[in-house]
Amino acid sequence: MNKFFTLLAFILFFGTASWAQGNTIASFKAYGHEDDVIYGMSGATSFYFKITPLTEMNGSKLVLYFEPSQAILKAHSYINIVVNNKPAYSTVLGKDSIQKLVLNLSRADLSPDKFLKIQIKTLLTISDDQCKDLDNPAMWLKIKNYSYLSLVKSNKNFFDNVNISNCFDSKKAIVYPSNPTLHDLKAVAWAYSRLKKTQTRDIGVYEESKMPDTLRNYIRVGKLDALPADQRALIKVSPQNNQGLFYLHKSVSTITDSITHMIDVKGKLVPVKTVTSEQSPKEILFITGGEDTGYEKAITALGNMNVLNSTYGDYLLINDAQNTFFKTIDENRSKLSLKQIGGVSDFLSGIGSLKSAYSFKNSDFSFTPKEVEIRFIANYSALQPGDRGFFNIYLNGLLISSEKLDQSGKLNSSITINRYQHHKYNTLEAEFRFYPTTGNCKNSFTNFFAEVDVDKSYLESKNPFITSDLSFYQYPEAFNTGTTRIVVSEKYAKYAAGAMGEIIYELNNNINANNFPEFVYSKDVQPNDLKKYNIIALLSKEDKLLKEFRDAPIQFDRDFRLYNTDNNTPVYSLSDTVSNGLAQIFYGVSNNATLVLTATGTHISEAFLAASRSITEQLSTLSSNVCISDVNSNKYLFNINKSSENLEYIDTKSGLTRFWDSYNLYILLGILILILLSFLYVRSKVQKSQELFND
After folding, report:
1. Where are the transmembrane segments (predicted)?
2. CATH number of the domain that 389 lies in?
3. Which run of H or E residues covers position 63?
């Protein structure tokens, strides 16, 4: 049995989903959840799963694996499962170190927005004295990430239930023409951004000539008359001139595949392959238009979540398209309520540690904040004489503020953090800690309650973080002000689609997404454009436009080499044959934000994509302005300026100097050997002379 669990864990760790016998098996890890630990005497955690329209909840199952602490009294500890805010299952813990729980699901377990919400609550004990169990670090229960959902596939209501509004959740790929236009690239970028907002990972971006044969559920972009004839025949609605079109093609066909089952033969698991045929749905969402104007309208609508989420049919003809977004009272977005960043009102009750968590990004503000005031306004039950209560604020796991609670029942607490304390992505926790009078401990477990007012509590940026040199720490919010142009080398356009998707997603990955860049070829950029717009350029290293970026940390029209400042060893050279992506961010000629990405080697698409992803990660430095990453996920960060000693331009040296730099150690070693041989030769002659003299 243990071998079976180990094998199951291995499969669920490395496979996002497997299809067999009409069911899909999707692990918690495949949904983005790692091992989740519930701490304390009475703790809870929640999981949210988006359920596709092709899932039949009746007959589906939740299979939960969990590991309780070895120290707890299992016979006196409990686990409770709440599905869709309704109690579903409760049980005392068993004796096994890894325990399994199977729960049948039904249609009633889904929320109206088609999410499956699972809450796991625990009541743990280590001793017979509850008061001694408070805050014991040995009280925990771990939800394993190879827990999974077994969801029943159903094509029964496929044609009725699947529509444009809900089809994005199941798509993981985008297909574009092999020779894309700027409109095609723009469509790919906005489709990519929309898919990533559904928390889809590993989005595939394919030229139509390189599309996998097994791909059956994807987004297809392209002007109507540029689509292949076989795909154009799937579209049953014809847009007129100046009309854009979303069209969802749906069909069901029989596919034959082989499935591997693990069979127990004399105590050993043996793989056995069987051939199976099943009815499989096929979905293609076309983003197209009658001609360029209509196609552009479809792309504009693709960036409007309100349009996408309210289109319940299989097609949408678009005559007019515009993006209007809700604006906060503070147009500059310097003050954000906890509700705006996704906070919800949690009624907390009990004893010990009671926490609420919130997440925010620097890009939620209109500029990179230098200092942020964090203010919590809350109500709580008044403390009785002898009770002890505290309110603590944690930022990214570190305690930054603590104050005592009193008999007023009102909390108004604030603290200001500097730029060294907050990161690009932040986790904020508010904690109430309550300890009743010792003598009344057992009778006070539900007497304390608290609730943070998420409407009145807020984050406020005091002033912008302004530096003489731009850094990745300030990306993407450096592009929030003004108009941004995305520039691409025409010959590299087909390789830049995925990277453009990452960029569009990041520019709009905030609470008020309204950044709609213009797309242009580098050959059409005028010198004045570099002063007028923010620039994000994806260029080949031979592109003439690179010469116009004289304020860039690195000049790509010259051969260069980068060194590690700690040991002065070369880290990167432009002549490397490995596919690398290089990103550099800086202020342009009119103090406008400028980001330039270049790619080398044979895997240009992957290099561009690696560079675009690396600059959006939680970087460990505040001042990096150059990032080099390769297709193997290796990454180097540099802070380059005019006086940097870790940058060397090779082409400024003569041939003799370059020869000396390359072979100086060998030359010096040869000279040393010659000196040694000369010394030995002279010494031998001297000895012979002395011997003759003595004779």
Report:
1. 663-682
2. 2.60.120.260
3. strand 55-68
